[in-house]
Recover the amino acids of this structure.
């Protein structure tokens, strides 16, 4: 059955499929902006996008510009297995960044060898086009 | 007394062989395990009048009705989501029986998760589901997978790292869990992984997603398990020692939206911590009264976290708890996963843990805890989750 396994494995890098709840995030990223939903009533920032505030349940919000600055909250170094499209980069980092606005965001720190990442490492967002429609938000050390 | 307490009992258990690759369908394996559980319970499959399954189970009600001889099903339910639901299925069965909705409820799980057990392109068709990811992701995966955060073990490695940062949990402590469960598996003929393992063997195994090594991760196996749950009064007339479902818990917590929602709240807002709170409140028992613990050991670190969530030790002290053979069936502080668990017996989504919990109550484990009368078996510490306490019945 191993031939079948190889023939059906995903070869491409999967990309986000924007939807009505989050398209603003991707449109902002394409412009080089990091925007998150922020509650118009209690002021709490949130990610992932959703139609109501998890703190006060208000449905009033706007997509506000975030600083893009944050610190590494936790991370893993992927040695594999992983999807074939990512294999060339092994071992690579995946990180959770706690942004200054208080939201957690999962991404990668670019140009940072695995043994140089540390907790609370200061990072800032960078914007990496992945297709005509999608720009991914990554991070760099600052 | 909680209204569900001691109303239902597990009276039958069944399983297929466990293997890294059986070359069999999940449907076929499910049927073997179900008929085995009926035989063990001394009942006909046609007596089943309730079905509870995982919502991701591929052997659904239609598949089952087609082989059970058209039984009269009076109750059926499925529970979300993944491994968090592994104890929830027993909770639903017990609730259905306590409410008089059904008399004899089947609980089961069948999985072809050996890495080569692939039957097609759909992610539900065996093997590693994450290897068949859609090219455009509309769901929560869109926030993880495009960055190379593809698999559950990568996600759980990030949580593990955070536990290490917060509480100083060490690789030696992770290794203690793997080694203890391997020792149990070596005594269990059903276990897939039976080669000896030392702390050094653990440290020598390759990183999968650092800080998790190969021997920190559940194994990828094929197999199915089933349990028959019936009324406590009826259980007295059946051949096996009943394992009464003494207390139940269902809970949700902060891990409902993957990592962003989980990391946004503290450890005590996990579903498992809330499930632990419930199970002690409902049972009136204390952790020190439990003879054996069965937890969802998808990764070694999550055993350490579960010990904290279920109150066997204070938050942050799970690592110290597992040291010096703390989880061993003989001489341990708390005999845990005495069959080898998902790390060394098989990865049947945690439901194989319940079979061993029942064997401990019956006194038939290959690593039997002397006089075991109360055991706790819990779902994964992801959300939603749940737990059951089993008590030796008359």
């Amino acid at each position: 059955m191993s031939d079948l396994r190889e023939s059906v494995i995903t070869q491409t890098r999967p990309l986000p499929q924007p939807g009505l709840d989050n398209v603003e995030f991707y449109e902002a990223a394409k412009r080089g902006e990091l925007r998150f939903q922020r509650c118009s009533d209690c002021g709490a920032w949130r990610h992932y996008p959703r139609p109501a505030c998890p703190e006060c349940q208000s449905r009033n919000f706007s997509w506000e510009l975030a600083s893009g600055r944050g610190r590494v909250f936790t991370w893993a170094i992927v040695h594999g297995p992983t999807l074939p499209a990512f294999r060339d980069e092994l071992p690579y980092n995946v990180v959770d960044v706690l942004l200054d606005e208080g939201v957690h965001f999962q991404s990668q720190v670019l140009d940072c060898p695995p043994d140089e990442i540390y907790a609370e490492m200061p990072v800032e967002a960078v914007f990496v086009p992945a297709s005509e429609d999608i720009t991914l938000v990554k991070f760099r050390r600052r | 007394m909680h209204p569900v307490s001691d109303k239902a009992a597990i009276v039958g258990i069944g399983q297929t062989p466990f293997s890294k690759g059986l070359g069999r369908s999940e449907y076929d394996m499910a049927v073997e395990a179900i008929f085995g559980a009926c035989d063990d319970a001394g009942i006909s499959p046609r007596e089943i009048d309730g079905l509870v399954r995982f919502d991701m189970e591929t052997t659904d009600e239609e598949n089952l009705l087609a082989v059970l001889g058209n039984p009269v099903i009076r109750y059926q339910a499925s529970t979300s989501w993944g491994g968090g639901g592994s104890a929830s299925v027993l909770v639903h069965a017990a609730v259905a029986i306590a409410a008089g909705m059904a008399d004899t409820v089947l609980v089961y799980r069948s999985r072809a998760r050996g890495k080569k057990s692939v039957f097609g392109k759909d992610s539900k068709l065996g093997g590693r589901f994450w290897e068949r990811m859609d090219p455009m992701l509309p769901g929560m995966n869109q926030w993880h997978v495009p960055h190379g955060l593809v698999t559950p073990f990568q996600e759980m490695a990030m949580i593990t790292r955070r536990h290490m940062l917060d509480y100083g949990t060490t690789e030696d402590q992770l290794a203690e869990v793997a080694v203890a469960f391997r020792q149990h598996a070596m005594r269990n003929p059903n276990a897939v992984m039976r080669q000896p393992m030392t702390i050094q063997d653990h440290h020598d195994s390759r990183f999968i997603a650092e800080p998790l090594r190969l021997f920190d991760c559940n194994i990828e196996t094929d197999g199915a398990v089933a349990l028959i749950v019936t009324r406590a009064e009826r259980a007295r007339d059946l051949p096996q020692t009943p394992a009464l479902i003494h207390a139940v818990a269902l809970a949700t917590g902060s891990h409902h939206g993957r990592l962003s929602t989980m990391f946004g709240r503290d450890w005590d807002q996990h579903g498992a911590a809330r499930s632990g709170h419930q199970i002690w409140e409902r049972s009136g028992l204390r952790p020190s009264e439990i003879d054996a613990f069965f937890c969802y050991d998808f990764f070694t670190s999550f055993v350490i976290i579960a010990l904290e969530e279920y109150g066997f030790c204070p938050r942050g002290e799970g690592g110290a708890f597992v040291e010096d053979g703390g989880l061993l069936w003989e001489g341990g502080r708390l005999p845990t996963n005495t069959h080898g668990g998902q790390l060394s017996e098989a990865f049947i989504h945690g439901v194989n843990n319940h079979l061993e919990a029942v064997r401990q109550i019956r006194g038939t484990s290959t690593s039997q805890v002397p006089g075991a009368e109360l055991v706790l078996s819990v779902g994964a510490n992801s959300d939603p989750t749940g737990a059951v306490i089993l008590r030796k019945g008359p």
Remarks:
- The longest strand of chain A covers residues 69-78.
- Chain A touches chain B through 50 residues (CB under 8 Å).
- The CA atoms of residues 107 and 113 of chain A lie 15 Å apart.
- Chain A is about 10% helix and 35% strand.
